[in-house]
Amino acid sequence: MTAPVPIPAPQALAQNARGIAIMLAGILFFTLMDALARHLMRAGYDPMQVVWARYTGQFVFVMIVVARHLPGILRTRHPVAQCIRSILQFAATSLFFLGLAHIGLAEATAIMDVNPVLITLGAALFLGERIGPRRLAGILVALAGALIVIRPGAGVFSAAALFPLGAAACYAGFALITRWIGGRDGIWTSLAYAALVGTVATSAMQPFVWRPVAAGELWGFLLIGGLGVAGQLCILRAFTIAEAGVVAPFAYVGLVFATLWGFAFFAELPDRWTVAGAALIVAAGLYVWYRETRLARRGGPKRPA
User: Fold this and answer.
1) Among candidates 291, 243, 247, which has minimal Cα distance to 124?
2) CA quadruple 79, 81, 86, 89: dihedral, nearest 10
3) C-beta neighbour count of 177 within 10 angstroms
4) What is the pLDDT of residues 9-24, one digit of tens each?
5) CA distances from residue 254 to 7, 28, 52 in whole angstroms, order as listed
6) Rounded CA gap, 46 and 91, in Å?
């Protein structure tokens, strides 16, 4: 993989700021989707039926939007990368939903939140993005905040905890490939490939897991696809216009959202340690952005920051 073409510092700062804002919106949509998925699984639906609803909803939405541009929208300069990226995203979603069926929303999200560390390290190794001790320290502090929230014990580090851990690894690969593709393929092309792969894979599973959807739960199966589309659009855009190592730490804010949804929807009241850890996560993410701001004002980093 080759590194993206360098851009001037002021322009990079503006792009990074926009990428951070879009990333936060995407995380909001995705955590709402996760909460809804947990609700549906607690109602007795198989995790892969819920994943099917997520991807089928995205597929229908994308096909409606791009109908006039078919089949051209499926043309890509990087067919192999698009397929691998879509498979990794599907694997990340499936593994995370499987984890939600067995452990709490905040716990699963906290484990999943190792992915920014993997993304940042991968960006340095494969994309040539600069990383130094200050940015790395901010990410590690955010990870420490996640550990404060979950206070690891036997309940978290069980076999079920391997599902969100695997999801984190798959998501990191997805994010890095998305960054590498950049603007060379349109967002709708990437969305179409992801929706197609996820829909085909999960549809093949439905004869073995399908349960008729109750009328009172139909809204959830319809909404989960829309939330997935909104979140995916934001994530794709964020990683396209900003450095992966800059926007990645803000994925930790998802833990804050997950804790809030856990309280609002499942009566899981966060304790003082959860609040303290969440505050540390947000502070660390903002510090990374603050470092980028100062370096840009000085005319760009002369060394990794």
Assistant:
1) 243
2) -170
3) 23
4) 667 777 888 888 999 9
5) 29, 7, 23
6) 16
